[in-house]
Amino acid sequence: MEYPHKSVLLAEVIQQLNCTRGYTIIDCTLGGAGHSETILENIAPEGFLLGIEQDDAAIEAARVRIARFSQHFEIFKGNFADIDEALTKTGLVEVDGFLLDLGLSSLQLADAERGFSYQVDGPLDMRFNRQSAMTAADVINGYKEIELTRVIKNYGEERWAGRIASFIVRARAREPITRTGQLVELIKAAIPASARRWGGHPAKRTFQALRIEVNHELDALKAALAAMPKWLRPGGRIAVISYHSLEDRLVKTKFKELATGCICPPRTPICICGRKPTLRIVTGRPILPTEAEIEANPRARSARLRVAEKVADAGS
Asked: What structural domains does the chain harbor?
């Protein structure tokens, strides 16, 4: 099965995770196994990789792509919020690295029936896991105007969120909004023509917001960031590739929190809080794709890679 997705910042991920023979690596966003294939090439034959993925099409493609490493990997079907469950079921105790690549795959965007793309018409779906109950159509047709405004504003950082929500509510009173094409036309109508001349496609931010809401992406990221450090061995690393400011801000803030030690007031003569850092921030500034990578894969342009390392005395 063809899975046309170019892995972003591949060389940088391999370098930052210090991928070495015998390592145990968790790819929390397996996708079509682009990153995982190269990771396995570096950690096999003694190493082991666990891939976490909730998209059936991606799982099928990944199994084919890394079939030659069949003795060195397992796949857990689920969300990366379920890291504790995935590692417990696999029997792992301590690992050397985690990777989260938070971007959409090219296959998901290209398949009109998945409803992720504002460039082609399709059903308003947007579920990563197609067994999940809620779709984007449920959000568009079921949320109150104030709730739609909140989603579009907070998750899409869309300045015209109120107008877009208002247009949606008026339109759905006439007939249900079930297609991406319908929604795109409503968004274009809601945003003034002068504002549509900059900032890319006018539907980009609203579609991002709906996808985040449908898949609870930020809640899942928070859960993953809280879970990963306790599974890392000292010196093990977490690498996260994000594609928009909401994700990147969450990662940056959590890494900073976990890298902070004593928080006692400055004049306290001795530490009474007992707080010790869990992580050391490896990348003060995020690692960005090179111009050559962006030219070869324009979707890499917004990628940001942040890395943190488990400190030796952090405990479990």
From this structure: 10-107+217-310 (3.40.50.150), 112-215 (1.10.150.170)
